[in-house]
Write a structure and sequence with these properties.
With 1169 residues, the chain is α+β, with helices and mostly antiparallel strands. The strands form 17 sheets. It has a six-stranded antiparallel sheet, with no helix packed on it. Strands 4-3-5-7-6 form a five-stranded mixed sheet, sandwiched between helices. A five-stranded mixed sheet has the order 13-14-15-16-17. It starts with a helix and ends in an 8-residue tail after the last strand.
Length: 1169
């Protein structure tokens, strides 16, 4: 059996001397049928060239450069070089001179064969860097021999080569299977190539005959190549599959078809040349090259029922999915399709897989990927993990080698037989098969999750609207899909029509200026068609890809530019993306309010995949319109790009605000910035009773008593001396501190007296009596029990305010009968919006003081005297405060989360820092105190729940929320030691409150902003899908109540009866039966209800009441029995903060930057503030 490439050709030539060996088609109409060479002529011309080379001093072991274009003489030139024997080094005439010079120097090239037609170009490119001497010219061969010598000292280059060689040899010692080695002189080289250099400088690869010959012999057997076959030379000489294509044909007596380089760039003409003129039977190509034909030509010509193509071998890139391959074939086609895999470093192919006919004809395949298949003869493959251990199931990097399948890289002069080379490709081992995942450098982390770019590309290509595509990261993190639309679309036909016009221009050699950018998109083409197609593709992708895999940008192009190796020229596509970005930058200079509105609407619709004619309502919420957190991030990035700004807080507005909020935010960040105004300060009215406007945001200064956030208190807090009093928090929670019974009261001191005389069963927690009746339940000093007032609720007709006066809404005669009103006692300016809910600490004892703790977006944390609003202390923390505070079990610390990712533990009496704990992202969740263990439990946008011990100053445990940031606040059920938390990825988790171990999880497709609240038997939560839900403590859903809008409000659980009260963005407050979720009553407000209701006992003897706020600035007090209005008042700003009530005082934060204390009194008048 022949041991070298040229020996295989000589054997075939002896058997088939009269048959056509080579056919060349220039594509010219005058060159009908092309020119051809028989095997006898091929052998004769090759022998002639070998003799000429020897005559001019080119002897054994030289590497000869070959500077030429594909033509009829190419095989005889290669044969003549191999017979010296020497190796050939193809040099690409279209490559940059600098790259070619580097290759020449690295290979120490002394001679180069130059096609006579290209001699002048060769001299012009390299005469300034190389000493060139034309040693001989052979017109009959159309070839010249050029002697070369570098003009630049090669000392440095040689030193580098030597160093590289030593490093490689040292590194290979650990990978060898044998101590034996072979030198270059022992290994007869066939050819020398260089890698593409896409991930660094190109590597030189020297390929011996013993490495490539088994490849060709095995593939010739698999493809059943016979003398009647026609094999197309699809690959350029610099790409090693060209060796396989050439010698598959010439070693079997078959015909090798070569076409002019220009024809390869013209898909339609190439298809005619291959399948109409020459009836090609064997085609080896990259998937990208094949996709250039387009789906129509593939179905009607290449893979039609009567196609001449017998074998299609795809390699060099990830193989298209079975679904895509099926879309290329017409029913009745019998072409055998192979998936080939290999690397240039172990030239050429390593594995093969013949795709079964059943896979190509069935729509019900079990996989979306085609396996890499089995190793070719003489090849060994193995998969190793990052530690170098063999992988038999799972992911790892593929290594390739074999005893004789070894090449020399760069400066290597010695090689170890059996060496295994790292491929740089990641694969999945599953059920004994290898599945390609992607290049190591194409496995990226995006939004904290691993993304396989090649897998994303396959999914995009599977869409009916997509002909082909390329996917890559631009600007480091933006995922961009460059898509060639399917020819069946009108927009695509417009693009491709112009692209075909440019094909004819290439053939004539003329320069045709078309009204389009360099990729063929005409400014006069219908922008609506393109925009509609882009939106349709984005919408489809949102259904088939996970959020972290959806491209940030879809860019339509008429075709994918190719490298000389037939792969996607990604650098060219990225340049096009940059040009688009620059065009956007130019547009930013002419930004106005009008076109800013157009831009925002366009980006909103594109991100959400909405139709162009969809009308966006000002109160539309991004998440409720079908978006998710990752789409919000994409929307945020696109706005920044379009406006040329990087507006702080924009992402939070997108997640939490309405469309109008987003519009206001970016308007301030762009237009007002250009006018020299503070983009973060909305224009506002003066506060009533104040002689000046609210302080501008950037003029906020900490008072003298403020300490820096990082300052920690020296000394020790005396936790053994517990404060006695009450903590009042949102959702009607009142915690009694420092008393022997440690109860949580329903409302306030007066309500406490009333509830003690009543007989009721506690709903939400066991009473002290419940614990005493159960010997196994022990109540420590920190044990807490909750009690609620008893009241009867009847279902009556909803009562709506009859007055159109927004300043005061009264419930007709019913309100007059009750005689309640709200008026402002005091207000405190925090400097920016107050979305956090206040927390009250009422201390008993000689002072009997009550303090309001509340944070603001101004970074301020204020401690205010409840009765007067006087500032006890104020701290400026590290970032914005949206989290409501909590009071530690000892009553000595106030705990609050911050946008800077810190959880601050501040002293109640002075505001000094006791401790800070750093999480991985912003903290918007409100802390919850476990009064049994003393732990502070809080969620973070980093996706974790933390249990913090303020005394020990350490984290006792943390638990991952199983994906998604945690916005809502945790909820405790102390008797059962259960902790509930919800995430923005739609998960409701139940954990063990002591250990943090998950007990059960409930998942939904929409995020949870609402905080869970629990009773003795149930846990309740609202969802942005518009529902209020009840679960038992084992995780089973008991009921679901549908509102007409998303639910951001958190439920407030009442005690006896029992009831749950919750608001909705439909503007209603709902009172539901806890047992079955049935509606007891509902009340329609004049805005939306984001905040949490507060159920309390009236200090004026009017029974049980519900305090709530609507986003239009209205504070409402309702009768808890029937939902009728008792009082209301309007504040001059939006309300997202939840009210808290103590005695006759209601405290709430407002987005006009103030904290208000309202007096609930018996007067029948009311006020507009």
């Amino acid at each position: 059996m022949a041991a070298t490439l040229h020996e295989m050709v000589r054997e075939a030539a002896r058997l088939h001397s009269g048959r056509t060996a080579v056919m060349f088609d220039s594509g010219s109409d005058s060159d009908s049928g092309g020119s051809s060479v028989t095997y006898e002529e091929l052998l004769s011309s090759g022998n002639e060239l070998t003799a000429c080379l020897r005559k001019h001093g080119v002897v054994n072991s030289h590497i000869l450069g070959l500077f030429c274009q594909p033509n009829i003489n190419l095989p005889q030139w290669i044969l003549g070089i191999l017979q010296l024997p020497s190796a050939y080094l193809p040099l690409n005439p279209e490559a940059s001179p600098a790259q070619t010079l580097r290759i020449v120097n690295l290979c120490n090239l002394s001679f180069c064969l130059v096609q006579c037609d290209l001699l002048q170009q060769f001299q012009a490119n390299y005469s300034s860097s190389l000493t060139l001497e034309i040693s001989a010219e052979w017109p009959e061969q159309n070839l010249a021999l050029v002697r070369m010598q570098s003009m630049i000292s090669s000392t440095t280059e040689k030193a580098l080569l030597k160093t590289g060689c030593e490093q490689v040899q040292t590194g290979h010692k650990n990978e060898s299977h044998s101590s034996a080695s072979e030198t270059t002189s022992q290994m007869r080289l066939a050819y020398v190539l260089h890698t593409s250099g896409t991930t660094g400088l190109p590597k030189i690869v020297k390929v011996p005959h013993q490495c490539i010959v088994p490849n060709i012999q095995h593939l010739r057997f698999l493809f059943q190549i016979t003398p009647s076959d026609t094999v197309f030379l699809a690959s350029p000489l610099t790409f090693d599959p060209s060796v396989v294509e050439m010698f598959l044909a010439l070693s079997a007596g078959a015909q090798l078809l070569i076409v002019h380089t220009v024809i390869k760039r013209m898909p339609s003409r190439l298809a005619r040349v291959l399948f109409n003129f020459h009836r090609t039977t064997v085609l080896q190509a990259t998937p990208t090259l094949l996709r250039r034909f387009g789906r129509h030509v593939l179905q009607e010509v290449v893979l039609s029922p009567d196609s001449s193509l017998r074998v299609l071998a795809l390699g060099g890139e990830v193989c298209p999915s079975p679904a895509i391959l099926r879309s290329w074939r017409q029913e009745g086609n019998h072409t055998l399709i192979f998936n080939l895999y290999g690397t240039t470093e172990v030239s050429c192919w390593a594995t093969y897989h013949r795709i079964p006919e059943s896979v190509l004809t069935s729509d019900h395949t079990t996989t979306d990927s085609v396996p890499l298949g089995a190793p070719l003869d003489g090849t060994e493959v193995e998969v190793r993990d990052k530690k170098g251990c063999l992988v038999t199931e799972g992911e790892g990097q593929l290594f390739i080698g074999g005893r004789e399948r070894v090449c020399l890289l760069d400066g290597e002069v010695t090689v170890t037989p059996g060496m295994m080379r790292a491929s740089g490709d990641w694969v999945l081992v599953k059920d004994g098969q290898l599945y390609y995942l992607g290049r190591k450098d194409r496995l990226v982390k995006r939004h904290g999750q691993q993304v396989h770019l090649d897998t994303v590309q396959q999914v995009v290509e599977s869409l009916a609207e997509v002909e082909t595509c390329a996917v890559d990261l631009c600007e480091g993190s933006r995922l961009v899909a460059f898509i060639v639309p399917y020819l069946g679309t009108t927009a695509s036909r417009n693009i491709h029509h112009r692209d075909q016009a440019s094909e004819h221009a290439d053939l004539r050699g003329d320069s045709v200026l078309l009204p389009m950018n360099r990729h063929g998109i005409s400014p006069n083409a219908s922008a609506l068609l393109f925009a509609d197609l882009q939106r349709k593709i984005q919408r489809r992708l949102s259904h088939v890809l996970s959020s972290n895999c959806i491209p940030d940008t879809v860019l339509l192009v008429p075709s994918l530019p190719l490298t000389t190796h037939g792969k996607v020229a990604m650098n060219e596509l990225k340049m096009e993306y940059e040009r688009q970005r620059q065009n956007t930058g130019i547009q930013q200079e002419n930004l106005t309010l009008d076109n800013l509105q157009e831009i925002l609407a366009k980006l909103w619709k594109e991100t959400l995949g909405l139709a162009e004619d969809v009308r966006i309502q000002p109160d539309s919420h991004f998440l409720l319109s079908g978006g998710d957190s990752l789409q919000a991030l994409r929307f945020h990035q696109n706005i920044n790009i379009a406006t040329g700004t990087n507006s702080a807080g924009l992402l939070e507005v997108i997640l939490d605000g309405s469309y109008s909020d987003i519009w206001n935010h970016i308007t301030m960040a762009t237009i007002f910035t250009e006018a020299g105004l503070d983009p973060q300060v909305p224009s506002k009215r003066k506060h009533e009773g104040s002689s000046s406007s609210v302080l501008p945001k950037k003029q906020i200064h900490a008072p003298p008593s403020t300490t820096a956030p990082e300052t920690l208190v020296e000394g020790v807090l005396h936790f053994n001396s517990m404060l006695m009093g009450y903590v009042v928090r949102r959702a009607g929670e009142i915690i009694k501190l420092g008393y022997s019974d440690n109860t949580v009261c329903s409302d306030n001191l007066k309500a406490e007296q009333a509830t003690r005389s009543k007989s009721f069963q506690v709903e939400g927690h066991k009473t002290t009596e419940d614990f005493n009746s159960n010997p196994s339940s022990t109540v420590s000093e920190r044990t807490i029990s909750k009690t609620r007032s008893t009241f009867t609720i009847k279902c009556v007709k909803d009562i709506l305010p009859s007055s159109n006066d927004a300043s005061l809404q009264e419930g007709g005669t019913d309100m007059a009968r009750r005689g309640l009103s709200l008026r402002v006692l005091w207000s405190s300016d925090t400097g920016r919006c107050v979305d956090a809910s206040p927390v009250l600490l009422v201390e008993h004892g000689s002072s009997h003081t009550a303090t309001v703790f509340v944070g603001s977006h101004s970074h301020r944390m204020q401690a205010l005297e409840l009765t007067s609003g006087a500032v006890r202390w104020e701290r400026v923390l590290g970032d914005r405060l949206e989290s409501s505070a909590a009071i530690s079990v000892c009553g000595k610390l106030v705990v609050v989360g911050c946008y800077d990712g810190q959880v601050y533990f501040l002293r109640v009496d002075s505001g000094e820092t006791w401790w800070t704990f750093k999480t991985g992202d912003a903290v918007k969740s409100c802390p919850t105190v476990d009064y049994v263990t003393g732990l502070i439990i809080i969620g973070s946008h980093d996706g974790h729940i933390y249990a913090l011990d303020s005394l020990a100053k350490k984290c006792m445990w943390k638990q991952n929320g199983l994906g998604g940031a945690i916005f809502s606040s945790p909820c405790l059920h102390p008797p059962l030691q259960l902790l509930y938390a919800a995430t923005l990825h739609g998960r409701l988790l139940c954990l063990n409150s002591v250990s943090g171990v998950p007990i059960w999880t409930y998942s939904r497709d929409v995020p949870f902003f609402s905080s869970p609240q629990c009773s003795n038997s149930c846990v309740f939560i609202g969802s942005v899908d518009g529902s209020i839900n009840g679960f038992n403590h084992k995780g089973a859903m008991l009921w679901q109540f549908a509102t007409s809008g998303p639910v951001f409000s958190s439920p407030c659980v009442t005690s006896s009866n029992p009831r749950v009260v919750c608001g909705s963005h439909d503007g209603c407050v709902y009172c539901l039966n806890c047992t079955d979720g049935s509606l007891v009553w509902k009340f329609q407000t004049t805005g939306k209800v984001f905040s949490t209701p507060f159920v309390f006992e009236s200090p004026r003897g009017q029974g049980t009441l519900v305090a709530l706020a609507s986003t239009d600035g209205t504070v409402w007090v309702l009768n808890a029995e029937d939902g009728t209005v008792c009082a209301s008042a309007s504040l001059s700003g939006e309300l997202f903060s939840s009210p808290v009530v103590w005695e006759h005082m209601l405290v709430i934060g407002c987005r006009n930057d103030y904290v208000y204390c309202l007096d609930l009194n018996s007067k029948e008048d009311s006020f507009r503030l």
